[in-house]
Specification:
The structure is a single chain. The protein is an all-alpha fold and 745 residues long. The chain folds into two domains: 30-526, Up-down Bundle (Cytochrome C Oxidase, Chain A); 564-743, Four Helix Bundle (Hemerythrin (Met), subunit A). The protein contains 24 helices and no strands. Helix 14 (387-417) runs antiparallel to helix 15. The longest helix has 35 residues, at 69-103. It is globular and about 75 Å long.
Length: 745
């Protein structure tokens, strides 16, 4: 079917959308925010591309002096950081922000204001990172910022500080986006849309959101500790003060390897939507595609140290991470089989979107095969610091993810704008990108095996090194030309593109059941859902095997799920638990390997801390009792118990402040030793969470006085109570770890 005509028995609300600039800036519409994500990331993509061209121009011949080593290091750091944190990951989130509510039949995303906040955190983080050029110099320690090079005195400019602050901002935005997408998928699905019927793009966004909430807090906690090292003279990752540079690598890659799949899984979902449509066949083995996604997510969490084979972790660690790294290729291979089988004997339409998906299959397979070679530890030792790694990474992230996203632009651009991208220009874009990409990076496999190191601004004039780099640089300029063709195609099509209609591809998922572009309310009416291809079922009711009354049955209401606010709070608590886990590991690591200076048993007073603990535990009890009174309809009693809870929480903070003041007057500080650094970091962030909890409780108290909670339940009260109980539970863990363990030991 080319277009879908839906019943119009529900009147369309009046369109009130303003298209002015301020309306976009202040927008809470998930579609506008999704488009702003795409525009912002395309701008950063152009910046990262210019940085890459400058590096390739410097490397076009041996011993070139066009760019000095310091500038090259800045370009290398900014290019990697930009492409990973400001382009690939947020661009995928932009597509998800736009499409997921449409694909699940929702009116909007679960938390529109938080959605806007996520986007502006991205923009602020990117601007903060690039402001480093004006504030003394950009970061020059690599996008991975390995300690001790990222520590003082090895990096004295503010570049690393802006790098860490910028990534903290983007990380907060990414976590809140992950929470929003997960709640939208779990709580706002249309009737009949079970998890087993989700479009594969939405399914992979769901799994991807889980990875985001497990991986990004690890990075955020590591960045906090790095900033404390740099700004407060601590030594968590600085060996000269007893810290461990290897610990930074463990933390970074515990984030970094799941991050690879955070940047790939949504692209898997994109081609899982596009290939079936242009093959005129359902996806082969839906269940295997979905299950293998979950397997990839799990395995990605336990393979981080294959980035660290050269560190010397020991035989047992090397064997474990080598085997786990080999295993992760299995579910990925299953996906390749599913996509290939979908193509087999299909009625294939070679649109530009389909061409990019076919190229994705070939390029990502090459990147996957080269990745498996790193699981052989001796091979990894040989090629780890060579161009072989550069080639592998780009075949995964550009030949894979970027090609998938280009296909997604051509596929969903008509839905977003109501106009088709020009197919002739699209074919030029595709072939230039394919040729330019392979010229740039295929030959880098050979350069790596010949021994040319990565991350260097020049190289000696050894046989073939210069000529092969010429080929690679020419390829990079062809690739840049392809991007310019793509940008021109989009700008031209926005003004003069052919009208697309509501469903130009004859697709099957719910986003094509509304107009192009969709109205502010998304749907006039969500069609009934009986299977994984709701629009196909709607167009072929007889072939779907449903009785004549199936349309009415499809409108049945689902069992109510947990309220979105409570679900979002529980997911947020899970991400914060991961954040605290990293800080706890840092404290435990240095407690087991004490450095010079005071220990916990020498300077802490468990009895006084125990009294504070009693205050905090009692606050959970009083809050629970207050909620019990609210459920009984006793408003005055609820307000009283809420006030007692606030007083107990404030007493805890007062007691913590007294303990901190006593330690500081005894010269136990962040800068003195590792105990002080890890203790103040851990208890300080817990104190910050308690303070935020008191602010939330104070807001509830004021609202209760104003009579806002008239019913026997309140989602707001339930959500805040979950947060407060979590904060109390964390302190019980910290008290046991810091005070009880110290004196038992």
């Amino acid at each position: 079917m080319s277009e879908l005509s839906l019943p119009r028995d529900i009147p369309r609300p009046a369109e009130t959308r303003d298209t002015g600039l301020f309306a976009w800036i202040a927008s809470l519409d998930h579609k506008q925010i999704g488009i702003m994500y795409l525009i912002a990331t395309l701008v950063f993509f152009l910046a990262g591309g210019v940085q890459a061209l400058l590096m390739r121009t410097q490397l076009i011949r041996p011993e070139n002096t066009l760019i000095g080593p310091g500038t090259f290091d800045e370009l290398f750091t900014m290019h990697g950081t930009t492409m990973i944190f400001l382009v690939v990951m947020p661009m995928l989130i932009g597509f998800a922000t736009y499409l997921v509510p449409l694909q699940v039949g929702a009116r909007d995303i679960a938390f529109p204001r938080m959605n806007a906040m996520s986007f502006w955190f991205l923009v602020f983080g990117g601007l903060l990172l690039y402001y480093s050029y004006l504030a003394g110099g950009a970061p020059d320690v690599g996008w991975f910022s390995y300690a001790p090079l990222s520590e003082r005195p090895y990096s004295m400019t503010t570049g690393v500080d802006y790098w860490a602050l910028g990534l903290l901002s983007t990380g907060i935005g990414t976590i809140t986006a992950g929470i929003n997408l997960m709640v939208t998928i779990l709580a706002l699905r249309a009737p009949g849309l079970a998890l087993t019927r989700l479009p594969l793009f939405t399914w992979m966004v769901l799994v991807n959101s889980v990875l985001i909430l497990l991986a990004l807090p690890v990075l955020n906690a590591s960045l906090v500790e790095l900033l404390i090292d740099r700004l407060l003279n601590a030594h968590v990752f600085a060996p000269q003060g007893g810290g461990s540079a290897v610990l930074w690598q463990h933390y970074f890659w515990a984030f970094g390897h799941p991050e690879v799949y955070i940047m790939v899984l949504p692209a898997f979902g994109m081609i899982s939507e596009i290939i079936p449509v242009f093959s005129s066949k359902p996806i082969y083995g839906y269940e295997f595609v979905a299950a293998s996604t979950a397997a990839i997510a799990f395995l990605s969490l336990v393979v981080w140290a294959h980035h660290m084979f050269a560190v010397g972790l020991g035989f047992a660690s090397d064997v474990f991470f080598a085997i786990s790294s080999m295993l992760i290729a299995v579910p990925t291979g299953i996906k390749i089989l599913n996509w290939t089988a979908t193509l087999w004997r299909g009625s294939i339409r070679l649109t530009t979107a389909m061409l990019f998906c076919l190229a994705f299959l070939a390029m990502f397979t090459i990147g996957g095969i080269s990745g498996v070679s790193f699981t052989a530890v001796p091979v990894d030792w040989q090629v780890e610091d060579t161009y072989y790694v550069v080639a592998h990474m780009h075949y995964v992230l550009f030949g894979g993810t970027a090609f998938g996203m280009f296909g997604a632009f051509y596929y969903w651009f008509p839905k977003m704008t109501g106009r088709l991208l020009d197919e002739t220009l699209g074919k030029w874009h595709f072939w230039l990108a394919l040729v330019g990409f392979n010229l740039t990076f295929m030959i880098q496999h050979v350069l790596g095996l010949m021994g040319i190191p990565r991350r260097v601004f020049t190289y000696p004039n050894l046989p073939y090194w210069g000529s092969f780099n010429v080929v690679s640089t020419i390829g990079s300029y062809i690739l840049a030309l392809s991007v310019l063709v793509f940008i021109w195609n989009m700008l031209r099509s926005l003004r003069r593109g052919a009208p697309a209609g509501d469903n130009p591809w004859g697709a099957w998922s719910l986003e094509w059941a509304t107009s192009s572009p969709p109205p502010e309310h998304n749907f006039d009416r969500v069609p009934p859902i009986w299977g994984r291809r709701p629009l196909w079922d709607l167009a072929h009711p007889a072939a779907s095997g449903r009785p004549p009354w199936w349309r009415e049955l499809a409108r049945r209401t689902r069992r109510p799920a947990m309220p979105p606010a409570q679900m979002g709070m529980l997911i947020f608590i899970g991400s914060e638990a991961t954040f605290f886990l990293v800080l706890i590991i840092s404290y435990a690591y240095y407690h087991l390997n004490p450095s010079p200076g005071p220990t916990a048993s020498q300077v802490l007073h468990p009895a006084a801390a125990g009294l504070n603990t009693a205050f905090l535990i009692a606050s959970s009890v009083t809050l629970w009792w207050g909620m019990r009174e609210q459920h009984r309809g006793r408003r005055t009693s609820f307000i009283a118990w809420l006030g007692v809870t606030i007083v107990l929480g404030a007493l805890f903070l007062f007691g913590q402040g007294r303990e901190w003041l006593g330690l500081l007057t005894s010269n136990v500080t962040v800068a003195r030793d590792l105990f002080g650094a890890t203790f103040f970091t851990l208890t300080g962030f817990h104190g910050l969470h308690v303070f935020l909890g008191l602010l939330l409780l104070g807001m509830l108290f004021v609202l209760a006085l104003l009579g806002q909670f008239r019913g026997r339940t309140s989602v707001g009260v339930e959500s805040v109570s979950l947060y407060w109980h979590f904060v109390d539970a964390v302190w019980i863990v910290l008290y046991t770890l810091i005070y009880v363990w110290a004196f038992i030991k």
